[in-house]
Design goal:
The protein is α+β, with helices and mostly antiparallel strands. It has a single domain, classed as 2-Layer Sandwich (Alpha-Beta Plaits), CATH 3.30.70. Helices cover 22% and strands 20% of the residues. The strands form three sheets. A two-stranded antiparallel sheet has the order 1-6. A two-stranded antiparallel ribbon has the order 2-5.
Length: 90
């Protein structure tokens, strides 16, 4: 089974309160936008006008986004107990 196939069987219980918040004003100052290239779940997308969109629904809770954001635009915390991703393959 490939990694992509394994990731497709994971389950998510998405909370209405996101565990990640993004300061989009700071994002505007970022030239290379590494979060859009390095997030394994593709939660960050760059639009044609250069702005960023974000959706926490498929977040793998790996923390990559907060590590690669040089401007500190991403605030990341673990989801409340019982919410987030449930890995079915380790």
């Amino acid at each position: 089974m490939s990694v992509d196939e394994k990731l497709r069987v994971n389950a998510y219980l998405v909370h209405t309160r996101p565990h990640i918040s993004v300061n989009f004003e700071k994002c505007k100052k970022c030239q290379d936008k590494p979060c859009t290239k390095l997030c394994p779940a593709g939660c960050f997308r760059q639009l044609p006008d250069g702005s960023i969109t974000f959706s926490h629904d498929a977040c793998l809770e790996c923390g990559t986004c907060r590590i690669v954001c040089r401007l500190g635009a991403i605030t990341w915390d673990y989801p409340e107990a019982g919410f987030g991703i449930w890995y079915r393959f380790s």
